[in-house]
Write a structure and sequence with these properties.
The chain has 132 residues and is an alpha+beta fold. It has 3 helices and 5 strands.
Length: 132
């Protein structure tokens, strides 16, 4: 291909842009596959099954938010943070965080090399640190 053909080909190439941070080779998260997988696994949760949580892509992982039906955190029933999942690429571990709403900080809850193990803990939530 001549330089002119390369320039013309480059100009006409369509680039699709996601509405969230696109992962790179150094950190493969967030990505559409895992975002949908987390969304599907949340359907198995024990608490607050009558609300629809939302999984949002954030740099390095995923944030789960949901309407606050108990009104323990937000008396108006607004959307609150439930959990944050991050993938630590060099270690190959997933990190699960819960939100301390009183201090407005994320706190580490668990580590696992398997995403589904952390989602199971999030879904069961026996101590009610996620689904408050």
């Amino acid at each position: 291909m001549s330089n002119r053909q390369v320039a013309r080909h480059t100009k006409t190439k369509k680039v699709s842009r996601a509405n969230y941070h696109v992962s790179d080779a150094a950190n493969p998260h967030p990505n559409e596959f895992d975002l949908r997988r987390i969304t599907r696994m949340l359907a198995l949760r024990v608490r607050y099954r009558y609300v629809e949580p939302e999984v949002q892509a954030v740099a390095g992982g995923y944030r789960i938010v949901s309407p606050c039906c108990s009104r323990n955190i937000d008396v108006s029933g607004g959307t609150i943070d439930i959990a944050r999942l991050e993938y630590a690429h060099p270690e190959g571990l997933w990190r699960l965080y819960h939100k301390d709403h009183g201090q407005d900080v994320w706190k580490m809850y668990a580590l696992s090399p398997l995403l589904h193990m952390l989602i199971s803990q999030l879904n069961e939530d026996p101590l009610r640190v996620f689904w408050q």
